[in-house]
Amino acid sequence: MTDSCGRTIDYMRVSITDRCNLRCRYCMPEDLAFIPHEEILRYEEIQRICALAAELGVSTVKITGGEPLVRPGCVELIRSLKALPGIRRVTLTTNGVLLSQHLPALAELGLDGVNISLDTLDRGLYRAITGRDELHRVLGAVFQALDAGLKVKLNCVPQQAVGERGLLELAALAVRHPVDVRFIEMMPIGRGRDFTPVTGGALLRMLEGAWPDLMPSIEKRGSGPARYFTSPALKGSFGIIDAVSHSFCAQCNRVRLTSEGYLKLCLCHGDGVDLRGLLRSGGTDGQLRQAMETAILRKPRQHTFGGTTGPGELRAMSQIGG
Ligand code: SAM
Ligand code: SF4
Phi first, then psi: what are they for 248, rounded to 5°? Predict the structure, then answer.
């Protein structure tokens, strides 16, 4: 469907849990209280909302969390969403810790792509950033996912502590592997507010310094806001998602469903609609569709990350799904 700013909304990020097996310092405080299980949408509730979203024109669903693979049955949920009429692409974003064991099933069911979060190739720094010593498992999963023929994107939130050398080392994975290495500016959401972001502009200058023949890619990849860059030296590509310093709100195509069933209209703003309440009070498909439609029509025109008011969203990123 089209929102009141004329933007086509065809992409929904679906968070299936607020729990996680890592504690990334900019995302999830160690002492964060979890949402009680009974307040988390059941899989059949998620399927119903996705089916209705598809009727409204959503064709791509991204499964996220918390860490989606800590919730039992995640792979079967993905399989069921792939079968919904109107849903053309289902992808997954994961920290990669539990990915290896699920790769055969994910490849077999035709997962349309996997984003793996990875901020550094340095074991000590990885442990400092994520609170856990899991780099070896994540890297193993990256290479196994590539071997399994999946489309793999690496998502890095660049941090000053990693430094230019560390960021370029990570980028260099795209030299030898057909992987998109994407750099996502730190957003002032939750603990992200405590960090000074490495901007997309600074990142691009670093990448151009190391790969002088880098050029913007004209090929469209996925449905996201990343700007991609290629070079003859790369098997993969680089992506920059500079949501804070470079607004792309005019092209925004997405809404988000939190694990407790709140349809969120913009990453930066708290506004949305409680679909769980409607679902569990016996709402009909027509009422649910109407609630979604009415909410999408009031999707905010733009984020206020850089403004004096800052983001209106008070949830942690692990409760939103990125
Ligand atoms: N656990 C999964 C993962 O790490 O990919 C999925 C959920 S996680 C919230 C999704 C993405 O949000 C990750 O790539 C993470 O790095 C990113 N993220 C978390 N907090 C952020 C922040 N403050 N600014 C920008 N990205 C953030
Ligand atoms: Fe967990 Fe992903 Fe947040 Fe890290 S970024 S704490 S892996 S939800």
Answer: -120, 30
Residue to mutate (ligand 1; options 18, 63, 157, 259; most atoms within 8 A of CB): 157
CA distance 19 to 22: 9
Contacts of 244 (CB under 8 A, 6+ apart): 185, 186, 187, 188, 197, 199, 305, 306
**Beta strands, E only, 40-125:** 60-64, 89-94, 114-117
Instruction: Give the relative orientation of helices 43-55 and 285-297 as an angle to the nearest 10 degrees.
Output: 60
Which of ligand 1's atoms lies nearest the C-alpha of 115?
Answer: 5
Using DSSP, state whether 53 is helix, strand or coil: helix
User: Is the distance from the beta carbon of residue 190 to the nearest atom of ligand 2 less than 6 Å?
Assistant: no
Q: Which two tokens stand for residue 316?
A: 């942690």
Token pair of 227 as six digits: 């700007």
State pLDDT tens for residues 96-141. 999 999 999 999 999 999 999 999 999 999 999 999 999 999 999 9
Q: Which amino acid is at 50?
A: C
Q: Are the beta carbons of 7 and 302 closer than 8 angstroms?
A: no
Beta-carbon contacts of residue 176 (< 8 Å; ≥ 6 apart): 235
Report yes or no: 17 and 65 within 8 Å, Cβ to Cβ.
Answer: yes
The secondary structure of 183-227 as a DSSP string is: EEPPPSSGGGGGSPPPPHHHHHHHHHHH-TT-EE--S--TTS--E
> What is the rounded distance in angstroms from the CA atom of residue 257 to the CA atom of residue 83?
19
Answer whether 0.90 is exceeded by the pTM. yes
CB atoms within 10 A of CB 136: 10
SS3 242: coil
